[in-house]
């Protein structure tokens, strides 16, 4: 189900790769651990992913200096291969990820409910940075 929250935040990147590759790199734990960080001083040392409705995912995001880490996790509500993923995060917020392939490029659009702690622009910037890391990883590998 597509996120229709009027307060939702959207980030987007177009990757020079076909949807099949983008889908695999987005969802396979061995790839997630290579791109899922917002800055060079963070990394994702662990990822698991059961990509199906009611399946769970978890990615550990951690500062490389060991000072802080957290698990980004949730449950899938909808999975349409190469097209759409919807999930609910552990804190109840909804996320929709759309994949749109045209001419051997794939646009990934993430729409997510904001949390109430950090400013909207900080949240948008963090999610966009992770998406930009994904784009770079998918194009270079």
UniProtKB/TrEMBL annotation:
It comes from the Bacteria. Pfam families: AHSA1 (PF08327). InterPro entries: ASHA1/2-like_C (IPR013538), START-like_dom_sf (IPR023393). Transmembrane segments: none annotated. SUPFAM superfamilies: Bet v1-like. CDD domains: SRPBCC_CalC_Aha1-like_4 (cd08897). Residues 16-139 form the Activator of Hsp90 ATPase homologue 1/2-like C-terminal domain. Signal peptide: none annotated. Belongs to the AHA1 family. This is SRPBCC family protein. It comes from Mucilaginibacter defluvii. The lineage of its organism: Bacteria, Pseudomonadati, Bacteroidota, Sphingobacteriia, Sphingobacteriales.
């Amino acid at each position: 189900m597509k996120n229709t929250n009027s307060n939702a935040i959207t980030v987007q990147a177009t990757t020079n790769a076909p949807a099949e590759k983008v889908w695999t790199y987005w969802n396979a734990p061995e790839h997630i651990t290579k791109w899922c960080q917002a800055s060079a001083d963070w990394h994702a040392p662990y990822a698991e992913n059961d990509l199906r409705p009611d399946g769970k995912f978890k990615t550990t995001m951690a500062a490389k200096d060991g000072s802080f880490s957290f698990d980004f996790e949730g449950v899938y509500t909808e999975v349409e291969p190469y097209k759409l993923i919807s999930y609910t995060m552990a804190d109840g917020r909804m996320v929709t990820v759309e994949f749109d392939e045209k001419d051997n490029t794939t646009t990934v659009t993430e729409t997510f409910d904001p949390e109430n702690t950090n400013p909207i622009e900080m949240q948008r910037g963090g999610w966009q940075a992770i998406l930009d890391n994904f784009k770079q990883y998918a194009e270079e590998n």
